Amino acid sequence: MSINSIEELNALVARVKKAQRQYASFTQQQVDKIFRAAALAAADARIPLAKMAVAESGMGIVEDKVIKNHFASEYIYNAYKDEKTCGVLSEDDTFGTITIAEPVGIICGIVPTTNPTSTATFKSLISLKTRNAIIFSPHPRAKEATNKAADIVLQAAIAAGAPKDLIGWIDQPSVELSNALMHHPDINLILATGGPGMVKAAYSSGKPAIGVGAGNTPVVIDETADIKRAVASILMSKTFDNGVICASEQSVVVVDSVYDAVRERFAKCGAVILNKKERKAVGGVLLKNGALNAAIVGQSAATIAEIAGIFVPENSKVLIGEVSATDVSEPFAHEKLSPTLAMYRAKDFADAVDKAEQLVAMGGIGHTSCLYTDQDNQPERVAYFGQMMKTARILINTPASQGGIGDLYNFKLAPSLTLGCGSWGGNSISENVGPKHLINKKTVAKRAENMLWHKLPKSIYFRRGSLPIALDEVITDGHKRALIVTDRFLFNNGYADQITSVLKAAGVETEVFFEVEADPTLSVVRKGAELANSFKPDVIIALGGGSPMDAAKIMWVMYEHPETHFEELALRFMDIRKRIYKFPKMGVKA
Q1: How many angstroms from the chain centroid is the CA of residue 139?
Q2: Is position 246 annotated as part of the catalytic site?
Q3: Which has the closest alpha carbon to 395: 415, 380, 373, 417?
Q4: Structure pTM?
Q5: CATH of 6-211+438-444, one of 3.40.640.10, 3.30.40.10, 3.40.605.10, 3.30.450.40
Q6: Domain residue spans in the chain?
Q7: Which residue intervals define the domain Aldehyde dehydrogenase in the entry (predicted)?
């Protein structure tokens, strides 16, 4: 049934809602069977879908869209085929917790004209993997290709046992229908990939949304980089599908000492270094009313040159404008989504990173940045670049188009065609979107009483005659300097002498601190700690009741760790295992 009106859209949402409720009860085994069948069908249709996308949108290169379609099916399946997304994800019997996955429900999928079939395939597959339904709002310039990709996935899913209305789409997209879909009360999440306006609309809908920010990827090439590899990688990335991937390089910032070598290498490998007049002509068509000119997006270098009224060889790979300004006044400094590049000369590495920061802040904050350096021998440069760049993806020696989408040049970067840019880019996530972002996790927590503990000294001596035996342990343990902490009454009545006489007879030096009072003050404790610091005992013996015992313990801490603050030691706690102040390790000095 064709969806061309609000009434038809409402009817579609009702059918999809019913299908999703049914699908939400499927087991992991059933879901994985459907996921596999859908991925196989999408991979099999990669070539006709690529041809449809180029023919309808007028953007990109068929062969490269074939690769993107293959990536969106094969790589996505391989990455997530074994991931648990249904029912109980984990169970911890020891701590009494169970984690359960639930689908979010119905997803509104916003698809761009630049990557229509691969994005639709990707979003359909991760929706199926997570027991969600999805309804697509395609871009008007790529609606047939987008919806065909969705239909191929749907038919394969149905054949594998999925409900028949699990994936839907708008046949004749319009602003009115897109807004109606995003604001529909039965839509649970918006998964938006597109221009800034569409992503902003998604976040303004009042619905939970996962959107992506604009890309304006800067590349820094320093003097330690492999120039041949750097230039080859950038050209491979920038010419891929005529530069429409949002992670693709937009500017190259080169350290002065290798600038001429990099420039020469670009020219030798098929890039056109524009002269001043040519640069002005091309710069004049990059933007339209301050925004990216749609007429150049996904076009070849030769076509863009023709639009600008200049001539370049038909096989030219990239048009490079050598510029200096990194602000909005420079057309080449913006995101261009085409085989056009800005090229900057930097005094040194620090200046290059500074320029890259400015370019990111101007138009691509949160998205992607790239550094070419000797990654094995320049770890400090990799670390510095990583620290300074406010981008979610920081690629090293990597073609940005292929590297940014993940799993090609670093297998730990999740494969995705929706790249989150974090709060910097106005997004809710700062990583590559995957199935984990499309499930709700419930935690079942069983009541468990807190563990209790009781600490005791390793030896406790009591009853008459225990003192000599206890002191014998001090002696046999090899202690040489003993500090006795007691009160004035016990000291004056000879109780301390009973200890010191035994220790002195065994060759142990002793010192007695006998100024402890009932309810000892902090000043008294500090005085005892000062004595300990000057005497430097290797054992502390408390003699008496609670006051000498408590005072001796605090003196011990202050002696072992002079930096300790008593106020932090004395702070009350709710749970001894969770107290903010942790007691330092004792027994190092005494």
Answers
A1: 29
A2: yes
A3: 373
A4: 0.87
A5: 3.40.605.10
A6: 6-211+438-444, 217-405, 466-569
A7: 7-399
φ, ψ dihedrals at 204, nearest 5°: -90, 0
Above 70 in pLDDT, residue 1? Answer: no
User: Where in 382-494 does DSSP place strands (E)?
Assistant: 391-396, 439-445, 481-487
Contacts 24+ apart (CB under 8 A), 521-529: 522/566, 524/551, 525/551, 525/554, 525/555, 525/558, 525/566, 526/558, 528/485, 528/552, 528/555, 529/554, 529/555, 529/558, 529/559, 529/562
Considering only CA atoms, which of 321, 318, 329, 322 is closest in space to residue 345? 322
Catalytic residue among 86, 108, 246, 421: 246
Fold of 466-569: Rossmann fold (3.40.50)
Instruction: State how far the Cα of 248 lies from the Cα of 252, in Å rounded to an integer.
Output: 11
Residue that is written with structure tokens 């709710």 in the block: 574
Report the CATH fold assignment for 217-405. Answer: Aldehyde Dehydrogenase; Chain A, domain 2 (3.40.309)
The residue with tokens 């920081």 is: 394
Amino acid present at 9? L
